[in-house]
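Sat 14:20. Reprocessing the chain from the morning session after the first attempt stalled halfway. Input below, unchanged.
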Amino acid sequence: MADDTPSPAPLAGIRVVEFSHMVMGPSIGVILADLGADVVKVEPPGGDQTRTLLGSGAGYFPMFNRNKRSICLDLKSAAGLAEAKALCLAADVVIENYRPGTLDRLGLAYATLAELNPRLIYCSAKGFLKGPYENRTALDEVTQMMGGLAYMTGPPGRPLRAGSSVVDITGGMFGVIGILAALEQRHRTGAGSYVKCSLYETTAFLVGQHIAQKAVTGQAAKPMPVRISAWAIYDVFETKNDGEQLFVGVVSDGQWQTFCRDFGLDDLAARPEWATNNQRVLARDEILPRVQALFRSVPRDELVAKLESSGLPFAPIVRPDELIDDAHLNAAGGMIDVTMADGSIARLPALPLEIDGGRPGLWRDLPRSDAQGDEIRRDWQL
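Finished this time. Tokens:
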């Protein structure tokens, strides 16, 4: 259950108003909230529709809205709009991820609010930054497709989105970086800033290594399933247990020697023509069948024990829901228990940070729609 205060809470005292739904905007808000900011989530009457999404969207609300307070306001009414404006004028930070121009038409644009609250930091999470595409409607999957990430993820001819809202979340992280930079600048100047983060440019940043690869090699990067690996052993291997797989990476000459020694492959280590990484990459077709046959003859648990003692990079292949019972994540505050709408408890990942040895945790449970409306009005003196 929730603690009384956040620990650590580096953003305690920072007031944030969040006009957002889905993933990108809420991901900005949850990071700030986990770090101790007072994040007020403004929802429409009846609550954010993200609360009731089905299928792959069912986990959006519980994952990205802990540690926030909820208030429902009808922005189409004069009274609701007046309260929303009052919140913004009392805030340090405003977050919004609606379609371009939506809040502008309501009189809640940055320029309008900054005249009355010059210390305000206003973060817009959009599909695109300035340019010809600026007013297009975008989604995570749209920008994965047009930004080259889907091309790199799937096999040739079968573009495939990544198995998470990776651009929404990473774009939100860039929004947080911008907000924190603006807060530091405000310490020096006393003035707020307008911050804008985006899906498309985030996607371009994520595939920047592949753009650079062509600049170095002169050849376009191939999709990851058929890429030429930078290492000879960097693959998923079948084990003796039917259906149980293991990823293993051997990414240095020292690791190659360790791998060969611990797995009885001394004859491979002794070959001078395979002494360096690039030589082994060119010999992958000769090396991999030997390693594949070895791994298929050994149970996965035995392989895991040997790889762990060797200090080599490895990973079993698991489903996301299996992380609930992960010993490491549960050892030191890596998972947080939140109360779902039906009263059940869900264990979800904490913010992936340690500050002074502590993990940001839960200090406000998932808010029910408008549950803190009166409390917010009192605290923020609306």
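The chain has two domains: 15-206+332-379, 229-319.
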